[in-house]
Amino acid sequence: MELRQDEVTTRAVPATGWSAIGGLVLALVVASVTAWEVQMRRLGLRAGDLDDGASHWTVERRKIAAGKHDGVVIHGSSRILFDTDLDVWEELTGRRPIQLALPGTNPRFLLRGFAQDADFSGLVIVGVTPAVFFTDFTTAFPEYLELNTLWLEESPSRRFGHQVGLLLSRRLAFLDDQYRLGTLVDQLDIPDRPGVRRPHMRVWKLSESFDDRQYFLWPRLQTDARLREHAKAVWRLNFGRPVDASRFPAIIDSVREDVEKIRSRGGDVVFVRAPSDGDLYERELSVVPRAATWDPLLERTGSFGIHFEDHADMRGLDVVEMSHLSRESATRFTRAYVAVLVQRYPWLDRRAAAGS
Fold first, then answer.
1. Does 192 fall in a domain?
2. Is 335 within a domain?
3. Count of domains observed in the chain
4. What does the alpha-carbon distance between residue 291 and residue 313 come to, in Å, rounded to a whole number?
5. Does any domain span residue 321?
6. Domain that holds residue 317
7. pLDDT digits (tens, 9 = 90+) for 207-257
8. Residue 295 sits in a domain of what CATH number?
9. Which of 128, 131, 84 minimizes the C-alpha distance to 107?
10. Which candidate, 140, 137, 136, 112, places its Cα nearest to that of 124?
11. ∠ at Cα 46 (40, 47), nearest 5°?
12. Backbone phi, psi, residue 112, to 5°
């Protein structure tokens, strides 16, 4: 049956103060955001800590393709990332490396991608974390597996979203990925039931990151024993996995192939072993001994290497949670290893060349 308009019940909407409601909602949002921002800054977060991720990496990788670089690239895991001060590099050499190291990641698959790039013929510095580098482990972050192609294929919307994120992160501290509400649940002090163990231990916030992917260890780890001990527990769990020593020769041969490809274009590769400490260092000595890994790597690839054990000014540094240096020690370590590099490769010191 068809109804006529005058037979349909209509409901009158009462007059409402929409502007007042909107103002109240806005005030509540501003108050809530302000309170959360104040609390996060009280915990040691700060605006300008830009986080990191695949899009941050692709920005740096595209600098190489565009020729916007000084002929030096850093690959590796988190140690060479946290322990390298790019400003010191630039101060000592007049060159600023492109920082492509990735936390929780074996650099070998990225080195392979670099070996296949015919457009770069500079110096590649590879940080070696032995219990990562000399295994078949790839990465703790699956999104990183696509990086060798993502930097070429990243969509415009993703690039735009990344720039918006940077803009906001320069002004707001609470946007830190490691201090979102969902992430903070992992940090609650809830004891496990007897006989029950949490299925996965994830590391909490470890670092601050700035422009050009300049990383430093988060200063709060130096003063907060709980954060520091949690990081150590994660390292003990992750680095406590079995290591297949029979794979060492094949892994080294694979690296040698990549090094030879880079050298065939006029480039070179240097390996750097940053400091570790405590029982993590003791385990590295046991399961990935230098004589079976580091020494054959340099011999088989014919590469120059810098091992912290071989240099007095690279020892005795502050390895805060057994695996990464404090910011002050990272600066000292960078000065030390860059000085060794310049002795080996005098062309790195652009300032000396300009003055001669």
1. no
2. yes
3. 1
4. 22
5. yes
6. 69-150+234-355
7. 999 999 999 999 999 999 999 999 999 999 888 888 999 999 999 999 999
8. 3.40.50.1110
9. 128
10. 112
11. 115
12. -60, -45
